[in-house]
């Protein structure tokens, strides 16, 4: 790190080892090794086991300040959870600019090629409470805090490029509708209930976002395997004060991958921390997740020509209209030291922008500019939350704001106002420069001087009234399997709705998206297709783009092969060890994480007399937690596994969730036992080999696992 700015100017590779720790955090990272236990006043504690009492069997004494301090602090350990996005996980890392982007923006992270900016990134679900499951069907938050040398910039986005509503006025209604119903507090972390579907079926503007949330985007495989989007149109402003519009896109190097619904439901029971664990373990093992930042840059004139309004957050800009230009990459390379101090206390804010970035007039964004600071005052207990180390910028902070709860700074001198002469006029404002003239970097933030001259009104522009074209664009851009998953998700969610009129209203809205989709969902609910919901616009503008392949998850398979993929290898006494070890080495070499899974954990004796240790058991780690499976050779082991109560379900879940299975030698008997004796020839995800060929089959197995899933296999095991 350079002394003056706290940001490193070296290449990203240099940071992989040292990581881009924020200077303010270094000050507070404490280590208790070799330290005595003390009170908060620094008094050493002699006995941390017993209350002070009048006699061994006597009453406890009020003067026991050691006990009282400990209990009092404990009583106040919890802070309010985030009103939305309460459940999440985060990591440190850095952003590296590919090139100077000064033509379009003076924003510090894009100032020069190779520039490194530290970041802290938090991923989250939206609806669930702090302790809720990770794999709920929901949008995911994707919030990045850039600690730039010109102040903190927060890009607070989601894994979906559009939003449910167009105007912040409706945000509390949306959130009240999706949260647990107020009379009985159910359901937790789920949109499949009356109030959510009541609301959205009455708000046709939510239809496009519903398509995304009901798609496999709503159940990602990993936080590391999601795209991220800034959602709103923002402005970039260069040092001449010239502005273009832009949308922000994060593209994961790991590819975009999702769970299937049955898997998501089962995982939520077996490992509610599935995504948290995945992110943590990948970073701990040195597999640092990486995203490329891309920008859609466009002018006001271009925007005027679109059939939709770029200020409407329920619309995206198809890449066919404005391509995504890669501008840099983000690498997350360090887990937080302390979940509460960092992940819980981090305060993102849509209003945190820096010179070179500005807002558009998106009315949803306007509400966000207010909401985030406001909510932190309750959540973090006052106006000084910017001083909490994870929130404090590396850029120097100087102003005349004073006091308030939990103030940390200790401003010296008697002046806390401006103008002043007693402090030489400091801290001084840096002055603004007029648009069209060069702005030196020392100049402060200048809002883009967009001209406005209209009546004050409550209302929406005409293009905001069209709600279905892009929902249709999304649906028509999906593969057949993705379409089937969308229909199944609507069917599931609406089947949980108790009021038939809500189901019918939602279906009548879906008719406007796609007859095919509406028919499929209606059939699944045992209903007729209802009349079409009337549209607000009789003659919407014809869209230029009607299919956009980039909207399918399959468009981004990733560049990481099987790195970090979790592969289960079943073991028991008598297992053919040599074949498993050679396969193990090939898989580890390819970056996979291999787990030997037994009927119990601990050592087993292989056919050669050598031992093999199971680090997981079928009981503590069911099959659906893994990405692929190896069934071992060794007749004694196969017989024992066949007799275990967990084995059939273990194999069936992997098969049902379209994952790759390799059976070595006698291991194929286990497939038969699980009802998978007959496999379609088209299914490239079930491989059979003799154990002597284990090393030879490894490349084919690796390719099959890298395909993530074999979605042609849409059903469970064929019934016997
Ligand atoms: Fe929001 C949190 C993303 C609309 C009000 N929001 C929050 C977080 C993310 C988003 C990722 C969690 C940040 C973290 O990890 O701490 N929100 C979005 C996106 C939106 C959006 C992508 C639409 C494009 N949000 C939105 C609106 C409002 C809010 C319209 C209010 C008018 N959001 C909040 C909040 C939260 C929040 C209440 C809760 C906790 C927090 O801010 O820090 O202020």
Overall number of domains: 3
Strand segment tally: 18
Low-confidence stretches: 1-18
Q: Work out the radius of gyration.
A: 28 Å
CATH class of the largest domain: Mainly Beta
- Strand pairing plus helix content: what structural class? alpha/beta
What is the 3D shape?
globular
CATH topology tier name of the largest domain: Catalase HpII,  Chain A, domain 1
Any ligands, ions or cofactors bound here, and which?
CIS-heme D hydroxychlorin gamma-spirolactone
At CATH level 2, the architecture of the largest domain is: Beta Barrel
The residue fraction in helices comes out at 25-40%
Mean pLDDT: 94
Largest sheet: 10 strands, antiparallel
The N- and C-terminal alpha carbons lie at a distance of 64 Å
Query: Strand-residue fraction?
Result: 15-25%
| Annotated CATH homologous superfamily of the largest domain | Catalase core domain
Number of helices: 20
Commentary on this structure:
The chain has 720 residues and is of the alpha/beta class. The protein folds into 3 domains: 88-380, Catalase HpII,  Chain A, domain 1 (Beta Barrel); 464-555, Up-down Bundle (Hemocyanin, N-terminal domain); 566-713, Rossmann fold, CATH 3.40.50.880. The chain has 20 helices and 18 strands. The strands form 3 sheets. Strands 1, 2, 3, 4, 5, 6, 7, 8, 9 and 10 form a 10-stranded antiparallel beta sheet that branches. A 6-stranded parallel beta sheet has the order 15-12-11-16-17-18, sandwiched between helices. The longest helix has 17 residues, at 363-379. The chain is globular. Residues 1-18 have low confidence and may be disordered. Residues 82-85, 88, 122, 124, 141, 143, 156-158, 163, 168, 171, 231, 313, 347-348, 364, 367-368, 371-372, 375 line the site of CIS-heme D hydroxychlorin gamma-spirolactone.
């Amino acid at each position: 790190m350079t002394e003056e700015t706290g940001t490193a100017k070296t290449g990203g590779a240099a940071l992989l080892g040292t990581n881009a720790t924020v200077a303010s955090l270094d000050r507070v990272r404490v280590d208790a090794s070799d330290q005595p236990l003390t009170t908060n006043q620094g008094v050493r504690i002699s006995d941390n086991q017993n209350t002070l009492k009048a006699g061994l069997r006597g009453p406890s004494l009020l003067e026991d300040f050691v006990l009282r301090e400990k209990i009092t602090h404990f009583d106040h350990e919890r802070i309010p959870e985030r009103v939305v996005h309460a459940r999440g996980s985060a990591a440190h890392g850095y952003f590296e600019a590919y090139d100077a982007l000064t033509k379009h923006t003076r924003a510090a992270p894009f100032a020069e090629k190779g520039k490194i900016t530290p970041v802290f990134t938090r991923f989250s679900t939206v609806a669930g409470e702090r302790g809720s499951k990770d794999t709920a069907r929901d949008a995911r938050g994707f919030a990045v805090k850039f600690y730039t040398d010109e102040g903190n910039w927060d890009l607070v986005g989601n894994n979906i490029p559009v939003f449910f509503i167009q105007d912040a006025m409706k945000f509390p209604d949306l959130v009240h509708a999706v949260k647990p119903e107020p009379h009985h507090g159910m359901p937790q972390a789920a949109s499949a209930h009356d109030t959510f579907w009541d609301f959205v079926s009455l708000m046709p503007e939510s239809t496009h976002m519903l398509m995304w949330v009901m798609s496999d985007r709503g159940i990602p495989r990993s936080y590391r395997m999601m795209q991220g989007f800034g959602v709103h149109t923002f402005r970039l402003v260069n040092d001449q004060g010239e502005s273009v519009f832009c949308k922000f896109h994060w593209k994961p190097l790991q590819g975009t991958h999702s769970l299937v619904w049955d898997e998501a439901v089962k995982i939520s029971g077996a490992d509610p921390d599935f995504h948290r664990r995945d992110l943590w373990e990948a970073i701990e093992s040195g597999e640092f997740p990486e995203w490329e930042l891309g920008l859609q840059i466009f002018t006001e004139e271009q925007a005027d020509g679109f059939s939709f309004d770029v200020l409407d957050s329920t619309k995206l800009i198809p890449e066919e209209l404005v391509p995504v230009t890669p501008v840099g990459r983000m690498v997350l390379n360090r887990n937080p030291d302390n979940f509460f101090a960092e992940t819980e206390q981090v305060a993102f804010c849509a209003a945190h922008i820096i010179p070179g970035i500005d807002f558009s007039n998106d009315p949803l964004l306007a509400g966000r500019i207010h909401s985030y600071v406001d909510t932190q005052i309750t959540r973090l207990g006052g106006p000084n939350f910017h001083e909490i180390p994870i929130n404090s910028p590396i850029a120097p902070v100087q102003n005349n704001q004073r006091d308030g709860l939990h103030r940390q700074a200790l401003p010296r001198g008697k002046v806390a106002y401006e103008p002043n002469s007693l402090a030489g006029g400091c801290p001084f404002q840096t002055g603004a420069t007029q648009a069209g003239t060069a702005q030196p970097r020392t100049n402060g933030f200048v809002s883009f001087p967009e001209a406005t001259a209209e009546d004050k009104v409550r209302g929406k522009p005409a293009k905001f009234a069209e709600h279905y074209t892009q929902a249709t664009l999304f649906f028509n851009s999906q593969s057949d399997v993705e379409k089937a998953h969308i229909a199944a998700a609507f069917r599931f969610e609406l089947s949980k709705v108790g009021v038939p009129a809500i189901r019918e209203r939602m279906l009548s809205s879906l008719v406007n998206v796609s007859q095919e989709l509406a028919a499929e969902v209606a059939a699944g609910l045992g209903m007729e297709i209802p009349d079409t919901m009337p549209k607000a616009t009789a003659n919407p503008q014809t869209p230029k783009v009607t299919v956009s392949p980039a909207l399918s998850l399959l468009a981004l398979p990733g560049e990481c092969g099987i790195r970090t993929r979790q592969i289960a290898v079943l073991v028991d006494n008598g297992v053919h060890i040599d074949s498993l070890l050679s396969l193990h080495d090939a898989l580890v070499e390819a970056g996979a994480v291999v787990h030997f899974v037994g009927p119990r954990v601990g050592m087993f004796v292989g056919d050669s007399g050598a031992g093999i240790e199971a680090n997981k058991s079928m009981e503590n780690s069911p099959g659906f937690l893994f990405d692929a499976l190896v069934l071992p050779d060794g007749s004694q082991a196969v017989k024992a596994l066949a007799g275990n109560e967990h084995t059939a379900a273990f194999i069936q879940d992997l098969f049902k969730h379209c994952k790759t299975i390799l059976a070595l030698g006698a291991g194929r008997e286990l497939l038969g036992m699980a009802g998978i004796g007959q496999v379609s020839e088209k299914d490239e995800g079930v491989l059979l080999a003799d154990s002597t060929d284990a090393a030879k089959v490894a490349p084919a197995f690796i390719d099959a696992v890298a395909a993530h899933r074999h979605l042609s296999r849409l059903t469970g095991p064929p019934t016997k």
